[in-house]
Amino acid sequence: MVLVQGAIVVLMVRYRHRAGRKARYIHGNTRLEVLWTIIPAAILGVLTFSSKQVWTAIRYAPESRPPTIRPAKILVIGQMFKWNIIYPGADGEFGQYLVYAKPTDQWWPDRKRHGGVNGPRDLPADQVEFEIERYNTIENPLGKVYDDPRGKDDDYEDALARAMEVPVNRPVDVYLTSKDVIHSFTLPNFRVKLDTVPGLMGVFTFTPTMMSEQLGPPGYFEIACQELCGQGHFTMQGRMVVISQEQYAAKHEMRGGKADP
Ligand SMILES: [Cu+2]
C-alpha cells in the first residue's frame, strides 16, 4: 500500500500541470500487458488447486469422508431475524420443513382441527387467508411435514433463537437453508460461513477443538449473519456453545430411542 500510494503521489507531483508543457500520447506495451495478465493468472491457478482439498473438506465432507465417522448433524433455518436450530434425534435424519398449508389442502399438516375445520379447503372464503396465515405463523412456523417418519424424533419445538450446542473434537455437519431471504450463517471463530438460500440446502463441516467453558466469559461463540438481510439484520446474532461429547449425546442424540454407537 505504501509503495502504490507513494508512487501515485510522486507521479502526481512530477507530472502536474505546468504552463506550456504538452501531454504525450502513448499506446502502451503489449509485452508488459501479457506479462501482468499471465503472472496473476498463474498465482490464482496455484491457489485454486492447492486450496481445493480444504474446500472439499469444508463443503463436501458428508460425501467424501470415510463412512465410519459419525458427525453431529444440525439443521439451521435462517429467518428474519433469528436462527432456528434443529437437532435430528437418535436416527440422525431430519424430517422435511418449510412446506406450508395451502388453500386447497384437505388436511392441516398436523391432522388436527384448526379454525373449526379439518383442512384449509373447508374454510369459508372470507376466512381462508386469515386462518392459513395464522396457522403458518403460529401453529407451524417451520412448515414441518408431520407425516415424515425421519422427522418424528426431531428436536424442533424450541428451535427459534436458541443457542446451538455442538460436541467438542467431533465433526459437526451444519445443514443450512432459509425461510425467507438470503442470510449468511457465519462462525467467525471457526473461519466458516455459508449463505442460507431459500429453496436450497447447503452444508458445511467443522470440528470444534475447545469447549466453551475453557474459553471463559462470555462462555459461548458468536453466530453472525453476514448478509444484509433487512432492517433487523444487526439483531441476527446467535450463540454457539461447545460441550463435551457425552453431554451432546445425552442431550441431543437420545431422543426417540438410543443412538447408534
Ligand atoms: Cu440475516
CATH architecture of the domain at 68-95 and 154-252: Sandwich
**What low-confidence regions span 5 or more consecutive residues with pLDDT below 50?**
none
Quote the beta fraction.
Answer: 15-25%
Helix-strand pattern: HHHEEHEEEEEHEEH
Helix content estimate: 25-40%
> CATH topology of the domain at 68-95 and 154-252, what is it called?
Immunoglobulin-like
**Which whole number gives the mean pLDDT?**
93
CATH homologous superfamily designation of the domain at 68-95 and 154-252:
Cupredoxins -  blue copper proteins
Alpha-carbon distance between the two ends = 55 Å
Structural class: alpha+beta
* Chemical compounds bound to the protein: copper (II) ion
Outline the structure in words.
The protein is of the alpha+beta class. Among the domains are: about 30-65; about 70-95 and about 155-250, Cupredoxins -  blue copper proteins (Immunoglobulin-like), CATH 2.60.40.420. Helices cover about 30% and strands about 20% of the residues. A 5-stranded mixed beta sheet has the order 3-9-8-5-6, covered by helices on one side. Strands 2-1-4-7 form a 4-stranded mixed beta sheet. The N and C termini lie far apart (about 55 Å). The structure holds copper (II) ion.
